Amino acid sequence: MAEQTKAVKVRRQLSSNAKKVIVLCSMVALLVLTGVLNFALNSDWFSSATSDGQLTGGDSVETFFSTYRTSRETARAEEMSYLEAIIASEISTEEAKATAETMKQDLLNNIEAELVIESLIKAKGFEDAVVTMSTNNVNVIVNKSELEKEEVAQILNVILEETDYTASEVVVVPYTA
Q: What angle do CA 50, 176, 140 make, to 5 degrees?
């Protein structure tokens, strides 16, 4: 009888820990979503016209790319902070800690790959580019109003050589100010 009670307590504790992990992961996802929405709503991303209706020049392009990078770095730093909190927490299960370690390593790998790909795209002659990698795809925004098929092929080639993504998982978008 005592053994059955002990087994029930262990199951309840595991269930409780699993719930905590789910809540923490949900909080991380909501934080990232909040950062993206904050960036989108508070930046010049959606409005590139001055008060008299004229399109702005190179400043808006420069602002877009620097703002995008800053927002991405902020979101990544917050995500990294949450993962480190899970790893350091005494109440986190070993499984939760292992998952957080894996997610942290994946995040670091993505950050490194994004920087390398951005540099290689610039080396191909593009003025600027930002790359964002997720588990499902790679998004590339290039500082050019229109892209020729050959240019898209160059960018795609860089990504396919540097990552394990397929061509159908890559989205290349020209930035028009």
A: 135
Distance CA 114, CA 110 (A): 6
Starting at the edge strand found earlier in the chain, the sheet holding 170-174 runs: 129-133, 138-142, 170-174
Q: What is the pLDDT of residues 73-128, one digit of tens each?
A: 999 999 999 999 999 989 989 999 999 999 999 999 999 999 999 999 999 999 99
For strand 129-133 and strand 170-174, is the pairing parallel, antiparallel, or unpaired?
unpaired
How many other C-beta atoms are found inside a 10 Å radius of the C-beta of residue 70? 12
CA distance 111 to 113: 6
In terms of Cβ atoms closer than 10 Å to its own Cβ (0-12, 13-18, 19+), residue 47 is exposed
Instruction: Report domain extents, the chain.
Output: 12-174
Assign 3-state DSSP to the chain and report helix, strand, coil percentages, each to 5. 65, 10, 25
Select from 3.40.50.2000, 3.40.190.10, 3.30.70.120, 1.10.287.4300 the CATH code of 12-174.
Answer: 1.10.287.4300
CA angle 154, 159, 162 (to 5 degrees): 125
Give φ, ψ of 82 to 5 degrees. -65, -40
| CA-to-CA dists, residue 149 to 68, 95, 126, 127, angstroms | 25, 46, 14, 17
